[in-house]
Design a protein that fits this description.
heterodimer, A: alpha+beta, Alpha-Beta Plaits, 2 domains, 5-stranded antiparallel β-sheet, 4-stranded antiparallel β-sheet, elongated, B: 561 residues, alpha/beta, Rossmann fold, 6-stranded parallel β-sheet, globular, flavin adenine dinucleotide binding (chain B)
Chain lengths: 162, 561
């Protein structure tokens, strides 16, 4: 059976140790985490985790059931296949020498990103978007010389019916 | 009125109906013990914390209540891990209370500090580090609720020393409700109608029942269902006692050391109804070939068990007892036609398998372990509560001591813990002081927790220990004989204590049989002697457990005697 990417959105109680229960469940049962984002929701007692995992259908069913079984897990949604918005964010520190500064700013403009830090030798660029956009901008900035990069994983929410 | 954390804990334990605690004091729990002795809760002082958890586990299985134990921080807590993992695998409701260093020292590598909540996260149903005396009552109530509800399991509560001493107002919610935890007890009725249709259609159905039937107290419902629908029943090791072994529909145990007729039935059946089982690899063997011609119905309270190992046609999430009660009602109204006629061919085929390969051994020469168990069954008239260690002794017991009732066979099924049997016998005897409790052990496994003999002596718990001494770690030796060309790498236990003298050193009685003719005599004397007893049987050194399915093979490919 083919492995596909699955996006899971999980509401949990905001308590110490809950993240470790979830990540421990994945490692202990040999499931794979591609990315994981977590922060409190509007209700400070509840956090939302977005996990991206690669698995075949029976395994993803098992992942969802096992997550539901944890006492601190309130709700598990799978977003894959339904309509949802998803974003990642990256901070990219690029070498900014005299002759490529304009080029970088042009790319930033085209991708509607922001320069959030400037120095004599670098620009730090903030990018948000889906995976495709991330890949595209990275492939353009790479030849100019990337010093460092920090990326979040995917965060995602259902689209409300229109 | 304000109470200390320790007083609050005792109050909640009383309210939860705890009358017995298995435990071992230490620096971090002195305050709890100081309060404990002021209550009428009975404390059983074990000799090793692992013993406390196994005893609480068996106490739970024998009494149907939640087993409780109390140990100190650090090494006390880590010594419980094997017992917790065993209870987790077998879904046994226990609450383990561990002491923890004072809050302000947590994370400082303090004396006898360990992150027990972190260590036990993967092997508890849930666990807690209590943050303050204010939340202690609620947490302990939740712990008991979680342990016993849904699919039962062990819950650990870690209490820092300052929380035991701090004052708080005693306030406890009457009803525990956790928004994120709602086990499904009631099955979907549409699914149950489908089940009945399939039972009517099936020509060669079988029931495969497990520990879940015992845990939900559904054995009467199961028996009624099987008899009414004329369906033969097999069980897993954990399910022994879920269906009476004297019933004509009984197939014997399934799996690696299951009976010939039971394993052959899985290959020929056209419908398998799994109830409270998880299709463990020791049962299914090679899963692709398991019940390959059958549609599978799976009834279980835990959705993660369903479709984890085998494909399922009708999943039914629900409590076994509730589900079987509904099924029996539906069955009563259903037109089943002439079931006896319909099933006769199938039952006849099973009878043929039974006659072709019965459980058998040849009592020639040295004592055969199977012979000991047959005699034990005879002389106890099948009435004892049996606990086992793990290995050949466990499998022979499962095969030759026929279990009629739930709670009568107590064994570490999922984790397979050597050292389980003796502390389990102690726990069962505490729960059922008037019953005869027998621990069946090997010479290897009994040495893992033999120190608990002292506990049995201290509380005058008359457990009877049967040691099948073959001078080997028998089950591993058997694998070495069959699959490693008899290279007995490190399985020979050349030196064992003199078990008769050892019994006497503990202040108990010891008996030994070295010849078949002495077996019955030793069992009779051992059973009628007062107090704890060791009966050692020097058995055939290289006897094997048959039938046997090599690990990973189809379960129909059995090595017979």
């Amino acid at each position: 059976m083919t492995e596909e990417k699955h996006v899971l959105s999980i509401l949990v109680e905001n308590q110490p140790g809950v993240l470790s229960r979830i990540s421990g469940l994945f490692s202990g049962r040999g499931f794979n985490i591609e990315s994981l984002c977590v922060a409190a929701t509007i209700d400070p007692n509840v956090s939302r985790l977005t996990i991206v995992t690669k698995a075949n259908q029976p395994i993803v069913e098992q992942i969802k059931k096992q997550l539901n079984k944890l006492i601190n897990v309130i709700k598990v949604h799978e977003l894959t296949g339904s309509k949802y918005v998803h974003r990642e964010m990256a901070l990219i520190k690029v070498h900014a020498k005299k002759d490529n500064r304009a080029e970088i700013l042009r790319i930033v403009d085209i991708f509607r990103c922001k320069v959030v830090d400037v120095g004599p030798e670098h620009y730090t660029v903030e990018v948000t978007g889906d995976e495709g956009k991330m890949e595209a901008i990275l492939s353009l900035l790479k030849p100019l010389g990337i010093k460092e990069i920090a990326k979040t994983g995917t965060i995602a929410l259902f689209r409300e019916p229109k | 009125m304000k109470l200390t954390g320790a007083q609050i804990l005792m109050k909640v334990l009383k309210e939860e109906g705890v009358d017995t605690i298995f435990g071992y004091p230490g620096g971090a729990v002195i305050d709890l013990y100081d309060e404990l002795v002021k209550t009428d809760i009975r404390h059983i002082l074990v000799r090793h914390e692992q013993g406390a958890v196994h005893a609480a586990d068996a106490y739970s299985r024998a009494s149907g209540k939640v087993g409780t134990c109390l140990v100190t921080s650090g090494p006390g807590a880590t010594n419980t891990v094997t017992g917790i993992a065993s209870a987790y695998m077998d879904s046994i409701p226990i609450v383990v209370i561990t002491g923890q260093v004072p809050s302000h020292l947590i994370g400082n590598d303090a004396f006898q500090e360990v992150d027990i909540v972190g260590i036990t996260r993967p092997c508890t149903k849930h666990n807690y580090l209590v943050q303050s005396a204010d939340e202690l009552a609620r947490v302990v109530r939740e712990a008991f609720y979680i342990a016993r509800s849904g699919r039962p399991g062990p819950v650990l509560v870690d209490i820092p020393k300052d929380v035991m001493n701090n004052l708080a107002t005693y306030k406890v919610p009457k009803n525990i409700r956790l928004r994120s935890y709602n086990p499904t007890y009631n099955p979907n009725m549409k699914q149950l109608h489908k089940v009945i249709e399939m039972v009517k259609m099936a020509r060669r159905p079988m029931i495969f029942a497990g520990g879940g039937v015992i845990l939900s107290g559904a054995h009467r419902e199961l028996t009624a269902f099987a008899r009414k629908a004329r369906i033969p029943v097999t069980t897993s090791l954990m399910g022994l006692g879920a269906f009476p072994a004297s019933d004509p529909l009984w197939l014997g145990m399934i799996g690696m050391h299951g009976t010939y007729r039971s394993n052959m039935s899985t290959a020929a059946c056209d419908l398998m109804i799994g109830i409270g089982v998880r299709f463990d690899d020791r049962v299914t063997g090679k899963t692709d070939t398991f019940a390959a011609q059958a549609k599978i119905i799976h009834i279980d309270i835990d959705p993660t068990s369903i479709r984890k190992n085998v494909p399922v046609s009708i999943p039914v999430v629900g409590d076994c007892k509730t589900t079987l009660t509904h099924l029996n009602e539906l069955l009563a109204d259903a037109d089943l036609g002439n079931l006896d006629e319909k099933r006769s061919g199938w039952l006849h085929q099973i009878e043929g398998w039974k006659n072709k390969a019965r459980l058998a051994y040849d009592q020639n020469g040295a004592i055969k372990p199977q012979f000991v168990l047959e005699k034990l069954y005879e002389l106890t008239r099948g009435k004892a509560i049996i606990t086992t260690e793990v290995g050949q002794n466990q499998m022979w017991t499962a095969q030759y001591y026929h279990i009629e009732e739930p709670g009568q066979f107590i064994t570490s099924g999922g984790l397979g813990v050597m050292g389980f049997g003796l502390p389990a016998a102690i726990g069962a005897q505490v729960a059922k002081p008037d019953d005869l409790v027998v621990c069946v052990a090997g010479d290897g496994s009994i040495q893992m927790n033999i120190q608990e003999m002292a506990t049995a002596m201290q509380y005058n718990l008359p457990v009877k220990i049967v040691i099948l001494n073959n001078g080997y770690l028998g089950m591993v030796r058997q694998w070495q004989e069959l699959f490693y060309e008899k290279r007995y790498a490190c399985t020979q236990m050349d030196h064992a204590p003199d078990f008769v003298k050892l019994a006497e050193a503990f202040g108990a009685r010891g008996f030994r049989a070295t010849k078949p003719a002495e077996v019955a005599q030793v069992i009779s004397e051992g059973l009628s002697a007062e107090g704890p007893v060791i009966m050692e049987f020097v058995v055939e050194k290289e006897e094997c457990v048959y039938p046997m399915v090599p690990a990973g093979a189809p379960i129909t490919e059995m090595l017979l005697v």
